[in-house]
């Protein structure tokens, strides 16, 4: 699979970072110390999307924390006379007003993830039991949270839903570990299969192909029908004669 992907990646090299806007945005995102905890330099489109995710996660984290502090301070007289559950219930209506303005996605059992650099459990606190921040060990998360950072692929393809990122997930399997991202702005297709990641440039494709979608390639990719996937990919992305011969030889031998 890797060998076949390389034929397309070499034949259609990425133009992603030729955009001055994307270059400038990459540098700006990398100035963030949390982004630097993951990588010092953005070298791939997927890292760019992940840096975006970190940026949005920190905005959400700060917005929820600030609103909780504002609400608690404005209800201080009442706060000391109610218990943990009552504090969460009291804050919930106001929290929902703020959260309507924030980006999030859902995972198992419709659990909302507002801060995808944190675990599922910490996201539960940010979404449902925000009064946990009355406790010192959790209040420290406001400023000291490096040890709580999770792997950027923890939520797999679930993050890349419409409105979350430049890239949108156009298909993913049931486990969420195989998915395809399309980025019309950066003109890039990203294929993720477990830890294997590949990129194909879209700048040579005609507009009608974007409009018609990529079902012919993404459906076989997700269903592990790799022969159909590569054959259909080849229809969209023709290869030069010598490369095509190599492609045909590998397809006939391995699939």
Main-sheet strand order equals: 3-4-5-6
Oligomer: single chain
Q: Characterize the main sheet.
A: 4 strands, antiparallel
Distance between the termini: 10 Å
User: What's the tally of helices?
Assistant: 12
Mean pLDDT: 91
Percent of residues in helices comes to 40-55%
**Strand pairing plus helix content: what structural class?**
alpha+beta
**Principal-axes shape call:** elongated
- The proportion of strand residues reads 5-15%
Number of domains: 2
User: How many runs of DSSP E, i.e. beta strands?
Assistant: 6
What is the CA-atom radius of gyration, in angstroms?
22 Å
Order of helices and strands: HHHHHHEEHHEEEEHHHH
How would you describe this structure to a colleague?
The protein is of the alpha+beta class and 255 residues long. It has two domains: 2-15 and 167-254, no CATH class; 48-148, no CATH class. Helices cover 50% and strands 11% of the residues. The chain is built from twelve helices and six strands. It has helices at residues 2-11, 20-30, 33-38, 45-74, 76-79, 84-99, 120-127, 136-139, 207-212, 215-222, 226-236, 241-254; strands spanning 105-106, 112-113, 168-172, 178-183, 188-193, 196-201. A four-stranded antiparallel sheet has the order 3-4-5-6. Helix 4 packs across helix 6 (84-99) and helix 10 (215-222) packs antiparallel against helix 11 (226-236). The longest helix is centred in the first third of the chain and has 30 residues, at 45-74. The mean pLDDT is 91.
Features:
single chain; 255 residues; alpha+beta; 2 domains; two-stranded antiparallel ribbon; 12 helices; 6 strands; 50% helix; elongated
């Amino acid at each position: 699979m890797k060998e076949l992907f390389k034929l397309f990646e070499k034949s259609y090299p990425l133009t992603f970072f030729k955009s001055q806007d994307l270059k400038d945005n990459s540098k700006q995102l990398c100035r963030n110390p949390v982004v630097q905890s993951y990588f010092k330099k953005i070298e791939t489109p997927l890292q760019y999307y992940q840096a975006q995710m970190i940026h949005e996660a920190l905005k959400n984290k700060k917005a929820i924390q600030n609103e909780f502090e504002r609400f608690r301070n404005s209800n201080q007289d009442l706060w000391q006379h109610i218990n943990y559950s009552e504090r969460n219930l009291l804050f919930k209506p106001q929290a929902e007003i703020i959260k309507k303005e924030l980006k999030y996605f859902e995972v198992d059992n419709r659990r909302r993830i507002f801060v995808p650099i944190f675990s599922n459990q910490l996201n539960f606190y940010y979404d449902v039991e925000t009064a946990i921040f009355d406790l010192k060990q959790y209040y420290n998360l406001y400023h000291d949270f490096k040890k709580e950072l999770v792997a950027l692929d923890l939520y797999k393809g679930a993050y890349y839903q419409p409105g979350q990122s430049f890239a949108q997930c156009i298909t993913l399997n049931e486990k969420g570990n195989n998915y395809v991202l399309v980025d019309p702005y950066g003109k890039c297709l990203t294929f993720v299969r477990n830890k294997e990641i590949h990129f194909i440039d879209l700048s040579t494709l005609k507009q009608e192909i974007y409009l018609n979608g990529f079902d012919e390639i993404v459906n076989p990719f997700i269903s592990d029908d790799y022969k159909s996937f590569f054959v259909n990919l080849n229809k969209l992305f023709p290869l030069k004669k010598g490369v095509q011969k190599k492609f045909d030889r590998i397809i006939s031998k391995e699939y």
